[in-house]
Design a protein that fits this description.
This protein is mainly α. The protein folds into 2 domains: 52 residues, Homeodomain-like (Arc Repressor Mutant, subunit A), CATH 1.10.10.60; 134 residues, Tetracycline Repressor, domain 2 (Orthogonal Bundle). It has 10 helices and no strands. α1 packs parallel to α6 and α9 runs antiparallel to α10. The longest helix has 24 residues. The protein is elongated and about 60 Å long. It starts with 11 loop residues before the first helix and ends with a helix.
Length: 192
């Protein structure tokens, strides 16, 4: 069964999250049932219910794990001077957080309609507003606001866009970060 492909990690909750995310990516969130997750884990549905009552509970737990480093980054960013160097560091740290959660971000990209309908979609949108505010000057022109939002979305879309391109994942991440950083810098050096 599926558990042969996934060595036991000792943390049942983590194994459930991993398998659920894999199934969500393979067949979509809506088409995946708790029964299928339990079967892939080679456990009873009751054992799965001990940890998670619904698929949304699993997804929320995945996002809480993802959000922890982003929340820490937002807290750190708010305590720093609003300098170009701070903004570069925010993008660098955010890039690393995204790289550590690549499967979840791929799921988000491929299931955007589902994300809009779930509470975590609203939560994530709020985090993106916070991130934008950290790298954007309060009095930025509309064009420069677009540059800052594009810098953030470049980090997201880049991971997805380059997934089928040959190359070292870290080299791809750094290339995406470079482009994102250039956009953010141009928002601070170019006036429309």
């Amino acid at each position: 069964m599926g558990s042969a492909q996934h060595p036991r990690r000792g943390d049942t909750r983590q194994r459930i999250q991993d398998i659920a995310l894999e199934l969500f990516a393979e067949q979509g969130y809506e088409k995946t049932s708790l029964r299928e997750i339990a079967e892939r884990l080679d456990v009873t549905k009751a054992a799965l219910y001990y940890h998670f009552k619904t698929k949304e509970d699993i997804l929320i737990s995945l996002f809480e794990d993802l959000m922890r480093p982003i929340d820490e980054l937002i807290t750190w960013g708010r305590s720093q001077p609003h300098t170009l160097e701070t903004k570069r560091e925010i993008l660098r740290r955010y890039s690393e957080a995204l790289a550590n959660a690549t499967p979840l971000f791929r799921f988000m990209q491929e299931n955007q309609a589902t994300m809009r309908d779930l509470s975590i979609g609203v939560t994530f949108k709020g985090r993106m507003v916070d991130m934008r505010d950290l790298i954007q000057d309060p009095d930025a022109s509309l064009t420069n606001r677009v540059r800052c939002m594009t810098a953030l979305f470049t980090l997201h879309a880049g991971l997805f866009a380059l997934k089928d391109i040959e190359g070292d994942p870290e080299e791809k991440r750094l290339a995406i970060l470079e482009v994102s950083t250039e956009l953010m810098i141009s928002a601070h050096t170019v006036t429309p």
